[in-house]
């Protein structure tokens, strides 16, 4: 699938659709309804945030949005705020395309590194992309839950 997917800037009118995609992606890992309900606020992207959060989307040839990622903060250190792939597209290279896009966008914007709180299920993917675990952080959605803190140092090409 990744060969035919294009990465582009998200539009504000896509925010609701992207928020729903993030929740579908989170649900893919088997979390229950109560857990997902607790994540809604943290996974909601608002129209007025799309540009500021440097939101990129993965778009399939049929126009369907199959992934999103945000690069947040100011150089030299940024944050991968959201990174989600539609469950139907997981394993098809979309995540790699999005992550590569964020990495290049971060370099172009002058970032020297970026970090993120990872869903525990996604740690192997992020490690394969060059990220390394540097600690743990409290979940923004569920009190008492701790998430792996990942980081990627950006070197020259």
From TrEMBL:
Domain N-acetyltransferase: 5-153
PROSITE patterns: GNAT (PS51186)
Alphabetical UniProt keywords: Acyltransferase, Transferase
Listed Gene3D superfamilies: 3.40.630.30
Protein name stated in the entry: GNAT family N-acetyltransferase
Species of the source: Streptomyces kunmingensis
């Amino acid at each position: 699938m990744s060969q035919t997917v294009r990465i582009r800037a998200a539009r504000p009118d896509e925010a609701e659709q992207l928020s729903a995609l993030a929740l579908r992606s989170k649900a893919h890992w088997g979390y229950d309804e109560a857990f997902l309900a607790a994540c809604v606020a943290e996974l909601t992207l608002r129209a007025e945030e799309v540009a500021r959060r440097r939101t990129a989307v993965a778009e399939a040839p049929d126009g369907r949005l199959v992934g999103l990622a945000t690069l947040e903060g100011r150089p030299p250190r940024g944050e991968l705020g959201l990174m989600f792939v539609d469950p139907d597209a997981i394993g098809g290279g979309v995540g790699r395309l999005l992550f590569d896009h964020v990495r290049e966008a971060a370099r172009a914007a002058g970032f020297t590194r970026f970090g993120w709180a990872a869903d525990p299920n996604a740690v192997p993917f992020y490690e394969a992309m060059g990220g390394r675990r540097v600690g743990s952080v409290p979940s923004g959605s569920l009190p008492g839950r701790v998430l792996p803190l990942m980081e990627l140092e950006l070197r020259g090409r």
